[in-house]
Design brief:
Layout lengths: L10 E7 L6 H11 L4 E3 L2 E5 L2 E5 L8 E7 L16 H4 L7 H17 L2 E3 L5 E2 L9 E5 L5 H8 L7 E2 L10 E6 L4 E6 L18 E8 L13 H24 L3 E4 L12
């Protein structure tokens, strides 16, 4: 593996392309969900660790950001390995690693949430599907038992079943809801303490309600270019997961975050 000895030893630049209407302050707010040390000044977003994003000075290209980052590469991806971000095609001579990988993942996630794309230093365009990440987590200060939660969620998903044997008073349990081919599970009991919510006084005693799309084919989540059938099933799961999250947040209380650590506003839930 080839790594620079410090942040200035070798650098590279990728590009994040977002809709022109995307405001820098909104981008900063999202980035701070996962990198709270990030700052914005004069069209430059400092991400820390030697990485930064610089907004294009041309107003016609205000949605373009040059992503300057230390270049850190490891070995090429093994043949046949799942690659949901399509990095193997973009970096055939060696995958991004360390801070470069972290920043590329962040830009890919921003592109997914904000309907944009990443253009790598090799000129490859990575355009994530908006529903590529469908799972949501409602992080709440309140715990609800399995029976009460099933009754609550039956308002929007009446075909609810318990996963496994229901044990009265159990701290960990799961509910399942059928989809056309797949299923949705609501899993209760973990405590993720996402960075975006670390300032909440109740976070150390919080409860996660994970709403997970369980695909019939586990390999599906590693698809970089889903076909029409997969996109349709992702869209169905995304909409129904959003409805479940909205009911949970409104009736149990708490905040909604996605798998990549970004807060999701109630109005953005499907």
């Amino acid at each position: 593996m080839q790594q620079p000895t410090d942040h200035e030893a070798e650098r590279t630049a990728h590009r994040l392309q977002l809709p022109r209407s995307t405001q820098p302050q909104d981008i900063l707010a999202m980035i701070r969900n996962v990198r709270p040390e990030a700052t914005l000044q004069d069209g430059m977003l400092d991400l820390g660790d030697g990485a930064r994003m610089v907004q294009d000075s041309d107003p016609r290209r205000s949605g373009r950001w040059t992503v300057e980052v230390p270049r850190v590469r490891e070995d090429p991806a093994p043949e046949g390995m799942g690659d949901s971000h399509d990095y193997a095609a973009a970096f055939p001579e060696g995958l991004p690693f360390g801070i470069e990988r972290d920043v590329l993942d962040l830009c890919w996630a921003l592109g997914r949430r904000l309907y944009g794309a990443v253009v790598t230093d090799s000129g490859v365009r990575l355009e994530p599907h908006p529903h590529h990440v469908r799972d949501l987590i409602v992080v709440s200060p309140h715990r609800v038992d399995a029976t009460e939660l099933a009754e609550l969620l039956a308002m929007v998903e009446p075909d609810v079943e318990y996963v496994g044997e229901l044990v009265a008073g159990a701290e960990r349990y799961a509910l399942t809801f059928p989809l056309t081919e797949d299923a949705i599970e609501v899993r209760v009991g973990e405590r993720s303490r996402p960075t975006a919510l670390r300032a909440q006084r109740w976070i150390d005693d919080s409860v996660d309600y994970e709403i997970v799309h369980v695909t019939a084919d586990p390999e599906e989540d590693s698809l970089a270019r889903p076909d029409e059938d997969v996109r349709a099933r992702w869209g169905e799961a995304y909409a129904r997961i959003g409805r479940l999250a909205a009911v949970l947040a409104e009736n149990v209380g708490g905040y909604v975050v996605d798998r990549e650590g970004f807060l999701v506003a109630p109005e953005d839930l499907a």
